[in-house]
Amino acid sequence: MHLSSRKVSVNIGRAIKEYEVIEEPYAHILVETNKELHGWLSKHRECTSERLLLNPYHGCSVGCFFCYTKGYDFGYFKLCQEEKVVTVFKDFDRRVASQLDEIKIASCGYLSPVSELFSELNNKYQITERIIKEFIKRNIPIEFITKEVISKEVLELLKQQRHSFGQVSILTLKEGLRKRLMKKGATTEQLLGNIRSLAKSGIYAVCRIDPILPFLNDQKEELRDLIKRVRDEGASHIIASCLDISKIMYQETLNYIKNFGISIFYEYKKLYQESIKNCLHADINYRKRIFSFLRETCDKNNISFALCMEFEMVKDKIRGLNQEFMSSENCEGINIPIYIKRGKYFEPIADCLGNCLNCQEAKCGLRELSQGNEDGEKCWKLSDYKRWSKSINENYRLF
Fold first, then answer.
1. pLDDT tens-digit profile of 191-243?
2. Cα 2 from chain centroid?
3. How far is Cα 107 from Cα 109, in angstroms, rounded to an integer?
4. How confident is the model at residue 87 (pLDDT cuts 50, 70, 90)?
């Protein structure tokens, strides 16, 4: 462990904590954590299925200039933005294991909303693999999103659980452009290899064209080629979005866009006028043209399609665009039932599609999870899963 003489301070709530920086393989700190599993945090979302969110790291080295966490100006996120120091939540897998043993109902795990999970740091600490093992050995499904190379160990683990799957972020087939959009990450060929490896292992594979950046990777012919290529490699589903820009990061983002030409810089200033919550979005007509083309192309290539967190304003209300463009039952393509614990292992509930956001029948028996009749999405915590666990019906019909 190569400790430097550098120390950093982090504001966590009302407390200020100081940590020594470890410089190899790149600057990071080790933090003991009391973090809990939880569901989606946003009350405005299009995520149809519930998830147990897992963030073993805050910050990463891939360095996408458009990363939405740059708009998080607090805590360990701020540390990463200002000091370029990543946070590692050591022994987080043990916390996860303990919490999984406290519940009898579970949704699919999700690695990782705010960082790259197969980074150089993970090669050192292996927290990702250890978390996946905790889910798999209880027969709880888990998914991930990556811009790095998937390890063989992870592929072998996922093969053991029927509903576990992987998502690979591929923004372009042009390696030169990929390098300009992010500092590090796997090469385009390696990312395509991820799709191939997942499919050959019998694991559901998703390609994320997320985000589409206007005038950079939005050319129709190139998008058509990308969809055909990942389909041929074994992808079963496409997820797309259009770049939205946090108001906090607006000027920094546009300054980076200047690297692609001053004309594109001015096009962005004209295009990004629509304000929804804390972000600026591309003009809705532009977005709908792109999404229509993507849906049509996916239909022609026999691959399902959905959007990620795309909205429009209709009479001062936020409306999700998946109801217009999604071709699958769930936004990630695969239907993953809610799981309940039967004896030592968890098992999927029969006839449950896992589409809680649109569900009206509550075949899991939990009316709270069935939000198809609700006005507004719910955000669940570990305490909710514990509460539901007390009322689990042992007579559910399982797969």
1. 999 999 999 999 999 999 999 999 999 999 999 999 999 999 999 999 999 99
2. 31
3. 6
4. very high
Distances (CA, A) of 58 to 78, 79, 102, 174, 314: 10, 9, 25, 28, 35
240: number of Cβ within 10 Å: 23
- Please write down the HEC assignment for all residues of 294-316: HHHHHHHCCCEEEECCCEEEECC
Say how far apart CA 240 and CA 177 lie, in whole Å: 18
pLDDT, residue 10, reads: 94
Amino acid at 140: I
Instruction: Provide the strand spans (E) within the chain.
Output: 3-12, 15-22, 28-31, 51-54, 57-58, 86-89, 105-106, 108-111, 142-146, 165-169, 204-212, 237-242, 244-246, 272-276, 279-282, 304-307, 311-314, 317-320, 339-342, 345-348
Looking at the predicted structure, is the pLDDT value of residue 357 above 60? yes
Q: What is the pLDDT of residues 126-155, one digit of tens each?
A: 999 999 999 999 999 999 999 999 999 999
Tokens of 160: 């053991």
Beta carbons of 127 and 167 less than 8 angstroms apart: no
Residues in the chain: 399
CA terminus-to-terminus distance, the chain: 47
Residue linked to tokens 């796997």: 186
- Beta carbons of 168 and 194 less than 8 angstroms apart: yes
